Automatic annotation (TrEMBL):
InterPro entries assigned: ATPase_NBD, Gcp-like_dom, T6A_TsaB
GO biological process: tRNA threonylcarbamoyladenosine modification
Gene3D superfamilies, per the entry: 3.30.420.40
Organism: Shewanella benthica KT99
UniProt protein name: tRNA threonylcarbamoyladenosine biosynthesis protein TsaB
Assigned protein family: Belongs to the KAE1 / TsaD family. TsaB subfamily.
Superkingdom assignment: Bacteria
Gcp-like domain sequence ranges: 40-159
Record GO cellular component, one term: cytosol
Compartments, as annotated in UniProt: Cytoplasm
UniProt cross-references to NCBIfam families, sorted A to Z: T6A_YeaZ (TIGR03725)
Amino acid sequence: MTDIQKTSDELTILSLDTCTESCSASLVSKGKIYHELAIVPREHSQRILPMIDSVLSQANIKITAVDLIAYGRGPGSFTGIRICTSMTQGLALGQDIPVIGLSSLQTMAQTVYDDQGGEQIVAAIDARMGEVYWCQFVVKDGIAEPVSSEVVIAPDLVTLAPDTQGAILATGTGFDTYPQLLELSHELVPADNVKFPDAKSMLALAKQGYTRGLSTSVDELAPVYVRDTVTWKKLPGRE
């Protein structure tokens, strides 16, 4: 269980994400970051646990040393979200480790900022069925903060937040599938290096969330599908 005397910078944090085509795990321990990432559609269930084992092994610690688990809560692939939340449940339940769910879209925006900077970022994931998952962000004190709600929306209904001015970096598969989204503003520029969430960028978001008191017990784990037609069932005995 997390030592309540620790600051966010002192925490040992494990982060994992399988919500899109990307599969990644990261760990910060004693100021050092360990990281594994692969673009492996349909292999997440086979790859995520070895990745977690790898970052723990690199840091020479066991899961019992982890103070907080950050997990990708969606939106994204329904199967991917289930894998990520189920893995988090399995890891956290036995050790009573607090968890914090992080938006896939916010993680993508943070990954863009970590990779190439920028002050404004929009993230769009292809949601299939003629829609995208969409959210807009501004960077404040090194953190990508949402300035709009996460939505699932038809591309021709997407709008930028009021008073948006200046260069905007665009990330995600939504822009590949619907390139007309880049016509929303002549100042939209594709962030070509980043298309998926990366667990490494979740670490900064997790620290911020911990400071804001957003971590919870694993019993309150909450995936986010955005589409409200899908329900989540907890593991047996955890209803």
